[in-house]
Write a structure and sequence with these properties.
The chain is mainly α. It has 13 helices and two strands. 66% of the residues lie in helices and 2% in strands. The chain has a two-stranded antiparallel ribbon with strand order 1-2. A hairpin with a 2-residue loop joins strand 1 and strand 2.
Length: 305
Amino acid sequence: MGGTVRTGRPPQSPARMAWQRFRRHKMALLGAGLLLSIVLYVTLGAFILSEEYANHNDLKARLQPPSTAHLFGTDGTGRDIVARTVYGGQISIIIGFLAVLVSVTVGVLVGAVAGYYGGIVDSVLMRLTETVFNIPQLFLLILLGKMFSGKIKTFQFLGRSFSGSVVVIIGVIGFTSWMFLARIVRASYLALREREFIVAAQCLGTPDRFVIFRHILPNTIAPIVVSATLGVAGAILSEAYISFLGMGVQAPTATWGNMLDQAYHHLETEPWMWFFPGILIVLTVLAINFLGDGMRDALDPRTVR
């Protein structure tokens, strides 16, 4: 008698296979754990230490080294560095994620439209992309930071005080870092728009917006996710650069970058002022890079690791 012989394991979904590849990437798991720890530090720390305490000046306690009273020591005006790193970390991470959100949105829209329609639309959008490529991001950050420093009023959001320079930093980083992703998305759309399932959708009269965002976009999600992940690290570093130069996020809003700027004149005498925000920047960027590297391998179906 004949019968059906079942061999091997049942087929797995792409998401499950990607997760299995990701789990085998030890550095990616380390990065994910490290990033989660930092996020918990800046999140849960806000429930223990108030923003008012983080901004409180106590000249009697200025420039104290780490102790039981102040685990990370105090700065030049007596503010507790633990509390400053908690609230400064929130802003640095928020700037990173919001800047990347702007960058990904613009990059995906430009790349998708250019790759799908081609022709004159593609030529115009790619020339625009090349033009923005020639704008030096750091120079623009310094220029606009200098122009708008102190001119945009501090505003309240979710119970936090934000200096207006936060909006400038997010906008500049976001609108000057979408070009690489746009080129990647364009290349994917150029390859996918000729596939059978896309041609079939077009023949059935499916509107272009549905073809672009419902049929093609899900097939380009891997490079978008990886680019977004690594972009967060770049945005955090860019904010640190500009804030260290004194032209980034302004008081009363704390960031890891402007904490380094405040420690500039105490590099040798009070090293704790720069060490703790500096090490948090390094660990956060390393964690995101490890995580992005693991996600790149996990989302690549050709990976055999």
